[in-house]
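Internal ticket - ligand job 342, iron/sulfur cluster:
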Amino acid sequence: MLETDLKEMIKNPYRTFELANRLREETNGDKVTFVVNRNINFSDVCINSCLFCSYRNRERFVLSHDEIRRKVEEAVDYGCTEVCIQGGLLPNAGVDFYVSILKAVRDVSREIHIHAFSPMEVLHAARNDGVDVEDVLRELKREGLDSMPGTAAEILDDRIRDVICPDKLKTREWVDVITAAHSLGIPTTATMMYGHVDTWEHRLQHLKLLKQIQEETGGFTEFIPLPFMNRNNRLGEFAMPSSGFEDLLVIAIARIYLYPLVENIQASWVKMGKKLAQASLYTGANDFGGTLLEENISKSAGATSGEFMSVEEITESILSAGRIPAQRDTLYRILRVYEGKS
Ligand code: SF4
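stdout (C-alpha cells):
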C-alpha cells in the first residue's frame, strides 16, 4: 500500500471497511477468538517517564513472589490458559529479577502459558547486567518464558518517540529485541499505540516496519492497535485522542495492509470499549483479546470498560454481533468453539 492508497482509503471509509471485512472473512471465517488470561502487573515503580503513562509510581508497589504465586493460583482456578506479566522498570532489575518471577509462576503451574516482559523490560535487564539481549532472552526462555508482548512499540518513529517517551528504547532497539526473540523461537504480538501526536503517515510507516519483520521472521501472532488513553497523564494535556470512527479505520487499514502475513487483528475491548470492539468485527478484527482478570494500566489512564470480562460476557458479545466465539490459546490454537449459547 502506497501513501496515495492510504489517502484513498481514508477518503472512502465505506469501501475500506468492506474490503477489510472481506479479507477478515477469507482469513478467519466467522470465528471470533478470545483467550482466557490474567494480567499480572508486578510493580508500578519505574525509572522511565513516558508522557502517556498513568500508571508509573502511583502506589509504588512491588508484588512479592507469594503474591505472584497467589495470583497464578487464582488464574489456574478460573481456567486461564495464559498469564500476561509486565511491570515498571525497577532501577536494578536484571535477568535474575525477571527469572525469579518466571520461577514463581512455574512453582504453581508447569502448563500455564507465560506471556511476559516487553522489549523494554528485556533491554533493561540486558543493560543492568551488561549482557546481550540474546543472552537475556535465552535465559528467560530456558526458565519458562513462552511468548512476549510486543508492547513498548508505541509509534515506531524516533521523532514521535522523542516527544512521547524519550527514555524508552528507540525504534531500532525495539526491532532488534523483537527479531532476536523471533529467531530464538519466542513468538510475540505486535502493537501500535496511536492517536496522540502521530499522523496517518506515521501509522503507515509503523505498519510497514511490522510487515517487513513479519516477512523475515513470521514471529508475530497478531496485531493489536491500541488507541491512546488521555486521562491522568501529561500527554493527555495536549494530545487529542482518536475518535471511535478513526479506531475502526485503523483496524481496517491494518487488516488490509498486513494481509495475508498477519492473520489476526485484535480489537482491544479494554481500550476501545466493548461496543466499539463489537463493531470492529465488521471492519477487519477477528479477535477479542482476553478476559484480563486484572487490568491496572488502562484503568489508570481512564479506560471505562472495567478490568475483567468473563468468558460468558465475551461469548455473549461475540454472539450478539453475529459471530461464532472460539476460545483459543496464546498461539491461536482453538480450544473450544461456542456454537450457540455459552
Ligand atoms: S509506560 Fe512503562 S516504561 Fe513508560 S513510564 Fe509507564 S511503566 Fe514506565
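Auto-summary: The chain has one domain: 3-337. The pocket of iron/sulfur cluster is lined by residues 46, 48-50, 53, 55-56, 88-89, 120 (CB under 6 Å).
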